[in-house]
Write a structure and sequence with these properties.
mainly beta; five-stranded mixed beta barrel; globular
Length: 482
């Protein structure tokens, strides 16, 4: 991306299959397969992580990713052929432990789900994918793809159409495993130069973006670094986001270079920096001064976890500011997933619309698409209501209690109170905020005729989950409040 608006990679991805851990209850033969993903598949000698001798690179360093870049794929399909049975994968690699570990070097997934083309975007020239929904920590992402470079075809992984029939496993390239650590090569596969604006489809009209630095001396946010060789250059130019004018000529004009699909993903509201580590290694290279670099470069943003990076207050001083206009278009995001069918109601101006005639619903992704063009052209206000079963569940709740008083004399009473509360779900699956509890509280009290002399004798709580926080207030009868 150094020569924008021209992308000079020379690469074009021809085929791509994306597989993730199946968290749905649907299992279809065409879109569900057993898979084994390997972190070092298709990596050459300069990038392979494991030290297993039979998996090392073949003689001669191959610069481009392909199955034959090292000896892993050949050995997996021959000496370790038992991994075609997903139940034998762990046993096959057990003799290689600890140099070859599940969760780090490989992942096996039963009935993994192949994403359809509506669930992700990918850039054929820049070679990255962007999922529509974020992955959880325990979810796996693996791919198989083919690309051309200089007229030659390269292949990484295996496709579901390669003649390997189910239930045999597919060998794939692991992009994200259950173990995600800055010490692993997969950490560098995360695109940390893409920032989401949290908007709908962006419009180039009235779009403004600035990169600012919080200067401690003045207390103001400035669009340049206050010292060094970059003091007379705005940060947009430093980051490679201002190399063109409005006509896309190679001349800086002080404004963000709005190039759809390159520096901006307009349909998804995301900004793409043309360098991999804009506030890290790239900024260090541009400053070209070790002393100043140690002051301004925020390298922890890329080689540490987000928690660690947030603690670097002296480095965390860069901002993205600006303004934009966006529109949702025909697609409405519901900010919910796994919606039960029939739970979405859509109205236009108070008039109910018909599903599959006026609109369609993707219940898994949580989106509504208006297919009646007349509604869009008329700009009729559209309202969507839904029921989400993301945290749906039932619970049984029981609360029993009693209070007993015994009058010893006309001037003196003694009493006791017992309360018991239980809550538990019907099933073994526990949803967030619906944890089972069993609380018992009992107390003894006495009272004299004068209500000001009421006092608590004993108070004891036995609880698995929470503590009752109320103490007995002064009361004429000395009983616990209802």
């Amino acid at each position: 991306m150094k020569n924008l608006p021209v992308v000079s990679s020379g690469i074009n991805i021809e085929r791509l299959e994306v597989w993730v851990t199946n968290k749905t209850s649907r299992f279809e033969e065409a879109s569900n397969r057993n898979i084994v993903g390997f972190m070092d598949l298709a990596e050459n000698a300069n990038h392979i992580f494991n030290k297993i001798p039979e998996f090392q690179a073949a003689p001669g360093v191959m610069p481009y990713p392909q199955n034959s870049a090292n000896n892993m794929y050949d050995n997996l399909t021959t000496a370790y052929g038992t991994i075609r049975d997903v139940d034998q994968v762990t046993n096959a690699f057990e003799p290689l432990y600890p140099g070859f570990q599940i969760g780090r070097d490989f992942e096996k997934i039963e009935n993994a789900r192949k994403l359809n083309e509506r669930e992700y975007d990918f850039n054929r020239q820049l070679g990255y994918i962007s999922l529509n929904t974020a992955l959880n920590t325990d979810e796996v992402l693996a791919v198989a793809f083919e690309y051309t470079l200089n007229g030659q075809l390269y292949k990484v992984g295996e496709f579901s159409t390669d003649g390997i029939s189910a239930p045999q496993t597919l060998i794939l390239k692991l992009l994200k495993g259950t173990t995600l650590s800055p010490r692993l090569p997969t950490w560098d596969l995360m695109m940390k130069n893409i920032y989401s604006l949290g908007s709908g489809k962006l419009d180039t009209k009235d779009f403004e973006l600035n990169v600012l630095y919080q200067d401690d001396k003045t207390g103001n946010s400035i669009n340049y670094l206050p010292e060094g060789r970059l003091a007379d250059k705005i940060l947009l130019q430093v980051m490679g986001l201002d190399n063109l004018n409005s006509q896309l000529d190679r001349e800086s004009d002080g404004y963000f270079d709005f190039i759809d699909g390159i520096t901006v993903m307009t349909d998804r509201g995301k900004i793409v920096f043309p360098v991999v580590e804009p506030f890290g290694s790239h900024l260090k290279k541009m400053i070209n001064d070790q002393k100043l670099a140690s002051k301004y470069v925020f390298q922890e943003l890329y080689d540490s976890t987000q928690t660690v990076a947030r603690q670097m207050a002296e480095k965390n001083k860069f901002k993205l500011t600006g303004q934009f206009t966006s529109e949702s278009g025909s697609e409405i995001r519901l900010n919910a997933t796994s919606i039960p069918k029939g739970a979405v109601k859509v109205t236009a101006g108070g008039v109910p619309l018909t599903e599959n005639t006026d609109y369609t619903v993707d219940y898994n992704m949580g989106t509504v698409r208006i297919i009646n063009s007349a509604l869009i052209e008329s700009q009729t206000p559209i309202q969507v209501s839904l029921e989400s079963n993301q945290f749906f569940g039932f619970q049984t709740k029981t609360l029993v209690g009693t209070h007993l008083d015994y009058r010893i004399s006309n001037n003196f009473d003694i009493g006791g109170t017992l309360l018991h509360l239980t809550e538990r779900p019907y099933t073994q699956k526990v949803n967030y905020g619906e944890e089972p509890i069993s609380n018992t509280i009992w107390g003894l009290n006495t009272s004299r005729t004068n209500p000001n002399h009421s006092f608590l004798l004993k108070y004891l709580t036995r609880s698995r989950c929470s503590i009752l926080k109320h103490l007995l207030p002064s009361h004429s009868s000395g009983s616990l409040p209802t």
